[in-house]
Amino acid sequence: MPYELQLLKALKNAGWKVKIREKERLEDPHVTIFKKSQKWRLGLRDKQFLDPGHNWNQIHKLVREAIEDENNWEQLINEWNSMYPHNPVNGGDDE
Amino acid sequence: MSKTIRRKKTSIRSSSGKKPSVNRVVFVAIQSSRKKREAVHGLVVCRNYKSLLKEAEQTNENDLWISPSSENTEQIAEVLTAIQVKGHKNTQRFGGLVQFEPPKPITRVTLSSLFDQVIGGTLQFKFLPLDQLIEVLSSPMDQRQDLFIGGAVNKDLGTLSLVRGNRQWITVPLSIFLPAGVIKPNFNKFSLDDYGHTLCFGNYESAGDVVLWEFDKEYRKRVKAKERNQATGIGASIRRLRIQRRLTQSDFPGVSRKTISRIENGEQKKIQTSTLNKISKILGVAPEELDSY
What we know:
The structure holds 2 protein chains of 2 kinds. Chain A is of the alpha+beta class. In chain A, about 30% of the residues lie in helices and about 20% in strands. Chain A is built from 3 helices and 4 strands; from the N terminus they run E-H-E-E-E-H-H. Chain A has helices at about 10-15, 60-70, 70-85, and strands spanning about 5, 15-20, 30-35, 40-45. In chain A, a hairpin with a 2-residue loop joins strand 3 and strand 4. The radius of gyration of chain A is 13 Å and the shape is globular. Chain A starts with a strand and ends in a 12-residue tail after the last helix. The model of chain A has no long low-confidence stretch (mean pLDDT about 90). By secondary structure, chain B is α/β, with parallel strands linked by helices. In chain B, helix 1 crosses helix 2 and helix 2 crosses helix 3 (about 105-115). Chain B is elongated. Chain B is built from 10 helices and 12 strands. In chain B, the strands form 3 sheets. In chain B, strands 2-1-3-4-5 form a 5-stranded parallel beta sheet. A 4-stranded antiparallel beta sheet of chain B has the order 6-7-8-9. The interface of A and B includes residues 37, 51 and 84 of A.
């Protein structure tokens, strides 16, 4: 099952989702934020958006709060690491 | 039953040699028990036979028809065939058809003669949930071209064939969907979600852009170009300015092409003041303003 962060019902009804799926474009470990047909990828190593032009101003405040909640953030990292043990969040890269 | 017909011409340019740009999306929902659909930009809804006739008379090869049921498909085929035959437009084609349910076998032939492209219509073919599909197909081309609206698994051939929001096809091997820990893809339970961003195989989900990244060279080029255009830092600024001035990397006397390339790609972190001065002189900006572009 993909890991999906629990959000308030009102946010879900508005089309917001936060997920880590079983097959992602790997590069930097990340979580994907959805609002209907839009998506943002947020790096789990540095909390920076992976794609140019994306920023927190585009994300609902309550979605951001849920993601940045300490327990939730740790859970997101743990979920990524369990799904992608060969590319863990704290593993760094080969540079 | 009140009619909900909104028609707005949505002119969307398409790249040459590809599928024609979609002019309208016509959703046929006659006798549908679904709640009245909210008006969506670019979407025409036919809730009765009269409105279907009206839209059919105005349709052309750029429209995309959506039929949620086999009954609606039969009605579309009947109306458009009448236009072809009685209207003496025997060679006219009517764009694309998205059909959620299989039509009668004999109707398949008729549909092939009516439409440039018929998508779906088999039990194996899966679409996005209808609300998501309509939203994707009604969105601008630059958004929907990278979203998947439907597809089918062929286990005999070991492939997944997908249709994008711009109605282009892409076929990929099932072998790319590797197990993630104990979670394995169930290819008997294929579906799509997240407005075309996610491919689902039972409990296993894959990002749609993984498929695009690995198998569509044009997609990779577009993504890379966008990243370069929006990259920050002095190297990216120099590159943007150079291109704007219509210069090549070799047009900087006293600075090698290789050095310009390394600076633009961010591979050279420390740039000598003399080099920066030479570059800024050619670009016609003050050195201290270079990274503001």
